[in-house]
Structures are given as C-alpha cells and as structure tokens.
Amino acid sequence: MNCTRMRQVLDAWIDGELDAATSTEIDRHLAECPACLALKGERGALRRELRANAPRFEAPPALRAAILARIEQTTLPAPAPARHRQWLQTAAFASIAAAVGLVAGLWIERPLPDDSLREHLVASHVASLTDPQRLITVVSTNQHVVKPWLQGKIDFAPVVRDLSADGYTLLGARLDHVGDRQTVAIVYRKRNHVINLFAWRAADYTAEALALQSARGFGMATWADSGLRYAAISDIERTDLEQFARLMQP
What we know:
- This protein is an alpha+beta fold.
- It has helices at 3-14, 20-32, 34-53, 61-73, 82-109, 114-129, 132-135, 143-150, 238-248, and strands at residues 138-139, 169-178, 181-190, 193-201, 208-215, 218-225, 228-234.
- Strand 3 and strand 4 (193-201) form a beta hairpin.
- It is globular.
C-alpha cells in the first residue's frame, strides 16, 4: 500500500466497503504515514460535518409504493441451461476483469479531475477549522517569518503577502495535502472569516487567469502563476474573496 493507492481507496475504506486484507494494509500504512493519517482525519471531519448539517429529505410514501409495484411487475427471463449459463458466467467474469484492469490503470495515471480537486480543497479547509492547532503550524503575522519557515520543507516558494492594510490579516501557515499533492496553506483572516490559501506545484508554467467558483457553500478563487497553482477558499463574501485573490497576484 502506497500513498497514491491509499488516496484512491480511502473513501471506500471509511465507508466500510473494502475487504479485510485491504483494510489491514491500510491500517499498517496509516501507522507509518503521517500525511495519509492527516488526510484520514480531514475526510472524517468532512463526513461528520455533512452528517450534522446537510439537509435530509424523506421520500413520500406514494413514491415508495410506486417503486415496489414496478419491481413486482418486472418479469425475469427464463434461466438458461446450466452448461450455457456456466459459459456465459465465465465470459462475463473475463470481460469484467479486463475492464476493471483497464479502468484501474487509467485511474492511476490520470490527474485528479476538477470535481475531485474541489472536494479535496473543501475537505482540507473544513478539517483545518475544527482545531486551531490543525489550522496553523507557524503562527505569525509577519510575512518575513512565515516565508523562511517554509524553506526546506517544500520545494517551491509560494507568494506570502502582508495585506493588513487591505483588511486581510496574515495568521501563519501549515503544510498540507490536496489529494496526492503536497501543498502549503497560508492562512489569513478577514474580520472573523478564515481564508485558506493553498499553493502547490503546477504541471507546467502556463499562467491561468483568476476564476471564481463555489463548492459546498464555500467560495473558491483559483489561478496559476510561475509554475504554481493557488486556491483561496473561505465563506467570506464573493467580492471580498475576489479582492483577496487579486491582491495576492503579481
């Protein structure tokens, strides 16, 4: 079990969908990998948050009755002869195994899609808000303290700015992960709202213009510059988040 595979099966493991052997491998990996253990905590925090606050809707009795009636009306085809059925099962299992192998190979090689990236960002943001010690590792309002602290811990240099004159107070920073990417989270505050500014190495040096979006009620501003990708996430007003993102850009 390695970190990449761990992140692919973590959600299924949390939901109790994996076999005992794989679960044992995950337990061993978590005991040896602080990064994956922290990611497990983030997923657990997000799960608890959703269960506590996500709206739930009961299906009306008429809908349940209609579904059951449709199921009872369904006619099943007559069973095939035993020998023919065994041949079909063998062929089906072979096809499924080939398809699963192909999909697994493509999944391991491809980068995380945007939807998955947004989910990881939200999970890290929510998890950081549950514990002040989890939110900030180096506590300082001085950019000349935060930026040197990052040296030697990551192989890139994200932008750290003093925006106090604009109403955004630097609180500090921490090391984090977004999916399988090593990231740094630079933490700011606007009034009583926390802003997590995530930064990680981009696949290339192509610049990307500022884009605003939302995920699970949080605002998110993303852009890329000088070989790094940035994502600022918070529950502040959209105009405040946009202003923050533009102030952080060159």
